[in-house]
Amino acid sequence: MLRIGVVGYGTGGQHFHTPFVAAAQGCELTGIVARAEATIAKARADWPNVPIFASLTAMINAGVCDAVTITTPPQTRRSLVLEAIEAGLHVIADKPFAPNYAGAMELDAAAKSKGVILGVYQNRRFDADLQTLKKVIDDGRLGRVYRIESRMDQDSPQTIEAGPTGGLLRDLGSHVVDQMIYLLGPVVSVDAQLDMFDLPQGATDVSFNITLRHESGAHSHLSACKRNYIDDRELRAIGELGSYVAKSTDVQAQDIFAGKRPIDDLVGWGYEPRENWGVLATASGREIVPSEQGRYHDYYTAFAQSIRDQTPPPVTAETGAKTLAILDAARESAMTGRSIHL
Fold it and tell me: What is the DSSP letter of 13?
């Protein structure tokens, strides 16, 4: 069993890490780092048999884990990732795991020099809607894919990291860009527009529109917002044989926030309801495509397997760095009005 400690017990640690560590094959949740009194109380109530530590240093010294997940606020992640690497622990870093491409490659080099595995937690590769679209593509049902359109709108302005170092581009942008790398491969150029909003912490991007051109010749079009009172998710793929369109409900997040855990129903977890199943349209007609299973815990299962087999983790630090390079290029494109070539 891979013993995993989770550093931070805010929304990320509480909802998107600890429940999925507990559900993953070959993994065991063996420690949580929390500092605020209310946070400690919540972690103890949720995981009464898991020890709570005041710091990463304390958890390292206790010797309870082989790997750690760093899910503290972005500005704190670099030092914690480096501390864990120096201690010889494998690391899963929440996105965005570095401020930019150069910072990401610094962490990648540090991990390689210590012989530990550093992975980036891009759990939305394991969304039900994305896994369903991937199967449609992999099965050749669209033929050559020309383009994919992805919209991820959330009515949750309170979750925006405010200020120049925050914004939606680094938040949801990290997810939707990584998803397109996953489906369509490397990116060669970026065009983007950002919508800025003046907050007390400074001007913050609260919505975006990005066009990516991929080495394969396909192009993807990504948009998201959090301040416009829209709650909607849609994937649309166009290929030489037809099209596929699906709306979804972000079913895993909804169930987690409702207090459910994947380990309580591993077989039934993570399926989009029938009314949200996608439609494949080809010369043969229209066909409803059943939902594949969404399983964020598959990330942790694959990470544990990568350590056992000494193979790359599901999302490498280098891949995470390329996502950050695309986000950097998107910001430059929005500021200059130019297409940025990578």
Answer: I
Give the global pTM: 0.95
Of 7, 11, 63, the C-alpha closest to 32 is: 7
φ, ψ of residue 218 to 5 degrees: the values are: -75, 160
pLDDT digits (tens, 9 = 90+) for 228-266: 999 999 999 999 999 999 999 899 999 999 999 999 999
Domain 2-121+300-311 and domain 125-295 have a common topology? no
Domain ranges of the chain: 2-121+300-311, 125-295
CA dihedral 212→213→217→219, nearest 10 degrees, is: 30
Distance CA 280, CA 125 (A): 21
Report the largest interatomic distance among the alpha carbons of the chain, rounded to a whole angstrom: 63
Q: How many residues does the chain have?
A: 342
Mean pLDDT (whole number) for 84-113 = 94
Quote the strand ranges of 177-250, DSSP E: 187-199, 202-214, 219-225, 232-239, 242-247
Rounded to 5 degrees, φ, ψ at 227 are: -115, 15
Separation in Å, CA 204 to CA 157, 194, 199, 224, 227: 11, 9, 7, 14, 11
Q: How far apart are CA 333 and CA 213, in angstroms?
A: 14
CA pair distance 263, 259, nearest whole angstrom: 12
| Tally of CB atoms within 10 A around 235 | 23
Superfamily of domain 125-295, CATH level 4: Dihydrodipicolinate Reductase; domain 2 (3.30.360.10)
Alpha helices in the chain (DSSP H): 11, 18-23, 37-46, 56-62, 74-86, 101-114, 128-138, 168-184, 251-257, 297-309, 317-336
Domain 2-121+300-311 has CATH 3.40.50.720: yes
Q: Are 317 and 108 in contact (CB under 8 A)?
A: yes
